Fold these 4 entries.
Entry 1:
Amino acid sequence: MIEVTERVAVAAPSDTTWAALTDWTRQGEWMLGTRVRITEGDGHGVGSGLSAFTGVLGLGFTDTMRITTWEAPKRVEVLHTGGVVRGTGLFQVQPRGGDASTFVWHERLELPLGRAGELGWRVVGPGFRLGVRYSLRRFARFAETYR
């Protein structure tokens, strides 16, 4: 099991940050190399399904998820149900007063392939974290101008 937690300050009220975060089909505008679609429900409640393809030039993987917790406008939790990505994700919006908030991204993931997966994470993990940080900076700009 690996855990990744990253956060970014957003110069937007928490309601706006929440709306931007849960606009799943626009996630590709800020998440590096990812396209998301809603596969079940409306994407705004427990039981809704999401599918995220992450990759470049058609090479990548699909991460399927089911929303397990929906506490608008504060937190949404997902269960990763795919063959490659398994575990849980937490997306949280914390108000900071006025027109400011913080977006927290937390993943608790099972590594595939046993020992080989652990070794692979040592190589891929730092790049994954850099990609998430880059994406969160893009998210802050996206949320600050979100309509």
Entry 2:
Amino acid sequence: MDASNRGHTAAGAGRGGFRVERAPDGRYRWQLKAPNGRVVAVTGAGYETAADAERGFDGLRAGADALVARITHVRDGIGWVWVVPGSRLLPEVRSSRAYERYATCQNAFRRFVVLLAKQPAPALELPERAAPLRPSDARR
């Protein structure tokens, strides 16, 4: 984990928060856990690098107030899931499980948005400081 308490962790490490993990296909995926350790949401897409996954999560976190979910019935079985569509209507993030009732699924999405907004912002990477100009350099 990096200094901002975000980033890569082993599966099951820690209780809540944002985690990036490498999937069996070699791509990186993120998940968001509630403080009780339950996975609340998972990314729909795989990323080439862990840094790409973090940037994807940060973009979603920055726009948390404007997120809109599509709640649909699961194809196989009983229940409802929420999905936040991304580009080309592919899921950007989805619920980690199906909910028995439509209203419960709606409430789960609302709790996800609140939890997402509470996640810490990434640590700012400051550019390297340039050497100050010498008086003779400024006149040329």
Entry 3:
Amino acid sequence: MKKTLLFLSVMFCFTSLVKAQEFQVGTNAINVGVGVGGYYYGYNVSDQSPVFSVSYERGVWDVPGPGVVSLGGYLGHKRFSRNENFDDYNWSYTTVGFRGAYHYTGFNIDNLDVYGGAMLSYRVYGGDDYEDYRSRPGASAYAGGRWYFNEHIAAFAEIGYGSAYLTLGATFRF
């Protein structure tokens, strides 16, 4: 416990010295994340992978509020397996989506980026023919935040439902 508190204290002191700008028009960001939760249709599964995802966004315009709107894309993948009556079923979903987000820039905290948005997607099904699994369009909403450790690297967390209920990862800004 003492080591954890010491680590967090050192990280807080280190990151408080960093003065990264919040999200703005022209900012490009790539998120690489691992998500948990969100298996489809409520079926019990024997095994499932986390959701591996990558997304890109670019700040495209300022809006009153204050804030910036970003547009971008999303790609996520999740694998499942199920053993039912000695039969094994394996399937996966790859989610391809178009995202838009509103980044609130009104906080006076240089390292923080908070945002919320929506995604239109298409879930591509692959695997064994089982029940009603099939490719289909989808829509989702999400909210998230990033904490920049320096001008180019941040940790992020998102809640919502693209392919997972909670996604954690790293952001690379350029």
Entry 4:
Amino acid sequence: MEAYRSSNYVCPSLRHNWTIGAPTGGHRGAILGAWNPYSQRQSLWRNLRADRQLKQRLAREISETPRSVWGGCASWWEHHYFAPGLDPRTACRIAGWMRQNAWLWLDGRRVCLVYCAGGRATRAA
């Protein structure tokens, strides 16, 4: 879990950089990724295919266009999407569908890590 806490999540189109526990800048929604399911490295081709599937799914769930986000630290960086206005229940379902260990929830005040491995969501920060 330390890797998540030391990561930065950069959204160039919003000119915003989020970290877990930090203020959201008033943003509400979820940051979800599809790369490297269950933290198992995949080829770029597989990650890009999963990324397209996630973007299509998010486009059906929210009224705004999902925003591109790069998240990580040191040598591990992954592409994500910020889905403004996405509710936490739907975000958790999508994260499970994409076989992700965790996702970020922006509640309008601070950035929270939601750990969801094993099918149960746990708010960690």
